[in-house]
Protein 1
Amino acid sequence: MQYRRDRASPGVATRRAGVRAPRGHGNQYNGSVIVEIDGVPLHLAHPDEIPVNWVGQEEVMRQLLAAWLVIDAQDLPMNPRLIGKPGVGKTTLAYAAAKRIGREAYIMQATVDTRPEDLIVQPVIEGAARLRYVASPLLTAMIRGGVAILDEGNRMSEKSWASLAPMLDTRRYVESVVAGIKIKAHPQFRLVTTMNDDASTFDLPEYIHSRLQPQILIDFPERDEEYQILKENLPFGEERILQYVTDFLQHAHAADERYTVRDGINIARFAMKLKSLATDAVEEARALHLSILETLGEEALRYFPRG
Ligand SMILES: Nc1ncnc2c1ncn2[C@@H]1O[C@H](COP(=O)(O)OP(=O)(O)O)[C@@H](O)[C@H]1O
Ligand SMILES: [Mg+2]
């Protein structure tokens, strides 16, 4: 099989997998890219595609893009952290920012079980006595010069974060113990992590904290923007229902409730489904009422807009 020099990553050979896929594994192989680093073939992950545009809230977008800029030959990009309540738009912002700068986006979900090898290279058994090395989405972004979104990074243990420490400072590389290789980040590689400001978190030690700067806080949007966000996510949404749900969210924000636009999208979506089954005109209010109740529970009904 011919190797093709990958112009974007000097020193890295690339080939398409799939041509010689073993039987029974064809689909997994098809279209996946293999690069060779220090003689070790690595199977790369696929970039993520989310069909959504970032609406309003330009200031946080500006801050994120600024953190990624390189303004001098001696400068380095930063590794920003997006913080906010669950459902305010952190993952969406990270993804949309990657698209703004025209890069591939690789979302990697962090959990309490995420181990260092999950973040870098995992060995997968491939038939008798053969190992296949699979690059994580994060490592794939490092190799291809994409954007890695380490989602909900606060769920991940210190041990896993520690394996990324050299990547997060001036060294910009990671080491795979499993494959016995050291991988340097492509100059265009960018990283962002998101963290919920709830209790489900590990307290990260200072040396990790200091490498994940700046911290960009995503807050609730203004009424106009919130309506536009609902509209963007539910383009088929009925005007009256979207307005109702916007009012509901704004009332809840004013009372500092945790409800976010994600809840709003769910409420509007379910209300429209309920309404589509209804037969009479009063059903709209009833559908919204039920939808709020079954999405957020009884307590949320106090923000139900009257009139
Ligand atoms: N500014 C925005 N523009 C477009 N969609 C948004 C915006 N903010 C939030 N959303 C939508 O709200 C939902 C929740 O956003 P998400 O990024 O998953 O939140 P988080 O990662 O903070 O939990 C998604 O459906 C997303 O499309
Ligand atoms: Mg998220």
Note: The chain has two domains: 58-120+134-217, 223-303.
Protein 2
Amino acid sequence: MRLLALFGMILFSVTSFAAETKVVVEAPWVRGIESGMENTAAYFTLKNPGGESVNLVRVESSAARVVELHNHVHNKDGMKMERVDQVTIPAAGSVEFKPMGYHVMLIGVKKNFMKSKKVKLKLVFSDGTTKTIEANKKSYEE
Ligand SMILES: [Cu+2]
């Protein structure tokens, strides 16, 4: 039974290595926050060199309690953040995550976020591939 579990773990790690996405993640960064604040956002540019579009469906991080994909939308009340199920990266195209646009919302950051200079993010795509990146923390003033 233990041997079977070990074999399963090896198989899993081999599979996850093979499933690294072809999508290129450029210039990842996460907004630093003052103590007392709980939420922040991460940004990057996703480039899809492939011949088919692919969707970013989820981002995982141990730095926050909840991680969601968000966009900023205009409505009659002004600007508002809205949760989105996925973000499509067109074939041979790119999508920029940036302030006032698409962003990875980190809700309820944990204590380790305040201390660390980098945040690990695992991007999960619709074709089952993944990519783990490190985003540098920096302050952002507008
Ligand atoms: Cu948001």
Note: The chain has a mean pLDDT of 89.
Protein 3
Amino acid sequence: MKKVNSIFYGSYIIGLGLLFLIPIPLLLYITKRYFCSIFLSYAIGASIVIGTIVECAFGILLIIELHQDEKIQKYCQNHRNIKIKLEEGKYECQNCGNRMVKEQDEECSICGIKYVENEIKTIQEILRM
Ligand SMILES: [Zn+2]
């Protein structure tokens, strides 16, 4: 499974869900007081259902992300002297988080830890363990 990383879009999804849960039903409710319509009652219900679905789906996504982060964290705590491949040509030192590590580096230029030879993992490989 792909690594979930909601840090850049999580707040927008929460905001979208809240929009359907509070302001839209409130506006429809106020409108309903002036124009009594069965359609508005259904629209209020539909908006609350959409908002609930969006928030629950994001909650599930967040649980998956936290589980993945926990798995990576546990692995890296026990394997501090490895490099993790982030993307093509970019590696991260698992002892200090230095992201300027190159594939051929034998030790970290920041913390000085010596890397285990040929021990390069990707996030996907750690998640599959
Ligand atoms: Zn380091």
Note: The chain has four helices and three strands.
